[in-house]
Amino acid sequence: MTNPATTHETLIAETDTSQPFPKAIVSWGIVAAFFIAYIFSFIDRMIIGLLVESIKEDLVLTDTQIGLLQGLAFAIFYTVAGIPIGRLIDRAPRMKIVALGIAVWSIMTAICAGVSNFWQFFVARMGVGVGEAVLSPAAYSVISDSFPKNKIGLPMGVYGLGSAIGAGLAFMLGAVVVAAVSNAGQTSLPILGEVKAWQIAFLVAGIPGLLVALMFLFLPEPKRRFTAAEAETKEPVPLSKVVDHMQENRVFFWSLFVGVGAVNLSVLGSISWLPAMLMRTFEMEMVHAGWFAGAMLIIGGLIGLIGGGALMDRIGGGTPAVRLKFCGWSALIGSIGALIFPITGSIPLLAVSFVLFFSAAAVAVGAAPSTIQQLAPNRMRATISAAYVFAVNAIGLGLGPTLTAWIGDTFFPFESGIRYAIVIVAVSGYLIGALLFYVAAKSLKTKKL
């Protein structure tokens, strides 16, 4: 069978104006599909954050073990599988790969409902990570083939918004399920028998994702767009060439990857424990904590990803250097919110400062992929994006939730101690990120990209 990623029919030179980008309705329809998938991705990834107390009680776990389930277990295969999956996305039909990935993570999320100990849970969460490793590299590749390079900030921001809405809906959905099951009393299901509210929450989060996977089987595969020079070569770029390209531009790539990773560490180290902090510090009921945390995430994501993405497309012509400097300033401003929201005793001030904190992170989450797609050669995009996903999540997802829990268990071993762990992680990550965004922007003056 002919590889559709390497036939002449799919090789479109970006300089060839006779080959326009897809119609707006098609391009934005594709963005909408990936946006929906990203929502489901983050629901499955983050719902455990609301259910911390229930899972700890039923499975007799510590905060550090919960942190491992939220972070390291998920990140191991999410990061390790990312590079080979990125290579596959650069060569094969992307929509079918996405459909398979969604199906895998949805099934593994549902399997989490049947675990009875820490290690079973750990393995199930690893499976969720394998499936989700597909989505972002494919989305970045497809979206960048659907819009002009200087106009991808907004569509990337819309896609990235799925993470904020998904995380917010994870907490809200969990709250709804917990309330419904609590009101219904004892619940029994086939195979599983009597189940607790947290188990039903995983089933409700996972099973509908199979419908999203089915949707991607019927979506059109956008044609890959190449420069005239790239279009002359049919063969896929060897991995060694990708490594050489990144090595030649190592200051840029390392600064960007680690900078976003540091911001991601702050965010995931905070939101993974946000509902628990609200319940422990302010004695909120789980349902109220879920709705409150979810609403703050969605509002902050809207401001940072949509507002920030649109603004960066307009400032300085949407150039990579401008995007990176914008990220640096956003991280500095967001560090103020990071300092305030974990330790304030005022609910209104917590809400305002958390939205400031999270919207600043959302700017970086939307801008970094846009910058990579602007600069990376087409045949390297998914592989470089996978390397980006690997680095960002190894740092943020692999370390954030667990580091926060470890600091809390070790230095603040009391009921509300998690709030002090959050403030340490949140502020430190943002300041490191701001510095590295500036270094990345400065490196573009001598780039070989």
TrEMBL record:
Molecular function via GO: transmembrane transporter activity
Keyword rRNA processing carried by entry: no
Lipid bilayer topology: Multi-pass membrane protein
PROSITE patterns xref list: MFS
Chief place where the protein resides: membrane
InterPro entries named among the record's database cross-references: MFS, MFS_dom, MFS_spinster-like, MFS_trans_sf
Residue intervals of the Major facilitator superfamily (MFS) profile domain: 30-445
Domain of life: Bacteria
Pfam families per record: MFS_1
TM regions (residue ranges): 25-48, 68-85, 97-116, 122-144, 156-180, 200-219, 251-271, 291-312, 324-343, 349-372, 384-408, 420-441
Keyword annotations of the record: Membrane, Transmembrane, Transmembrane helix, Transport
Subcellular location: Membrane
Entry's Gene Ontology cellular component terms: membrane
PANTHER family reported in the protein's UniProt record: PROTEIN SPINSTER, SPINSTER
Name of the protein this chain belongs to: Nitrate/nitrite transporter NarK
Lineage, broadest ranks: Bacteria, Pseudomonadati, Pseudomonadota, Alphaproteobacteria, Maricaulales
